[in-house]
């Protein structure tokens, strides 16, 4: 399964595996959306080699659902090529990157 989520206290941890592309949209929406305002999110990219533009859109939708500027979303365990893309997109300004 490419998207697995679990709740730890006030944080939702979403682990992505295999891929993160348009075909994962529905599974990501189910895991990420519908949580109360103030929920913290950690998205684990440890197994992701590449992402596509739909993935960027899904992360932006999560940010909107989580409260825009008040959101607390960490994109963790990013491989160098994914981290480079996030930095090129200025995601460090709106997400916590590691």
**How many strands in all?**
5
Which structural class is indicated by helix and strand composition?
alpha/beta
Distance between the termini: 23 Å
Residue stretches low in confidence (pLDDT < 50, at least 5 long) are none
Main sheet: strands, sense, barrel: 5 strands, mixed
The largest beta-sheet arranges its strands as 1-2-3-4-5
The Cα radius of gyration reads: 12 Å
CATH topology: Transcription Regulator spoIIAA
CATH superfamily grouping: STAS domain
Q: Compute the number of structural domains.
A: 1
**What is the annotated CATH architecture?**
2-Layer Sandwich
Sheet-strand content, in percent, reads 15-25%
Question: What do these coordinates show?
Answer:
- The protein starts with a strand and ends with a strand.
- The chain is built from three helices and five strands.
- The chain has helices at 25-32, 53-65, 80-88, and strands at residues 3-8, 11-16, 40-44, 72-76, 96-97.
- It is globular, with a radius of gyration of 12 Å.
- With 98 residues, the protein is α/β, with parallel strands linked by helices.
Topology:
Elements: E1 3-8, E2 11-16, H1 25-32, E3 40-44, H2 53-65, E4 72-76, H3 80-88, E5 96-97
Parallel strand pairs: 2-3, 3-4, 4-5
Antiparallel strand pairs: 1-2
Helix pairs in contact: 1-2
Please describe the structure with a list of short key phrases separated by commas or semicolons.
98 residues, alpha/beta, 5-stranded mixed sheet, 3 helices, globular
What's this entry about, in short?
The protein is α/β, with parallel strands linked by helices and 98 residues long. The protein contains three helices and five strands; from the N terminus they run E-E-H-E-H-E-H-E. It has helices spanning 25-32, 53-65, 80-88; strands spanning 3-8, 11-16, 40-44, 72-76, 96-97.
């Amino acid at each position: 399964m490419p998207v697995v989520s679990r709740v730890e206290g006030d944080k939702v941890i979403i682990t992505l595996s295999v891929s993160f592309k348009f075909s994962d949209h529905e599974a990501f929406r189910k895991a990420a959306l519908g949580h109360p305002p103030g929920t913290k999110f950690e998205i684990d990219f440890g197994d992701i080699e590449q992402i596509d533009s739909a993935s960027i859109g899904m992360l932006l939708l999560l940010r909107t659902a989580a409260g825009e500027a008040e959101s607390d979303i960490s994109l963790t365990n990013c491989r160098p090529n994914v981290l480079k893309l996030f930095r090129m997109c200025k995601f460090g300004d709106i997400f916590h990157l590691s």
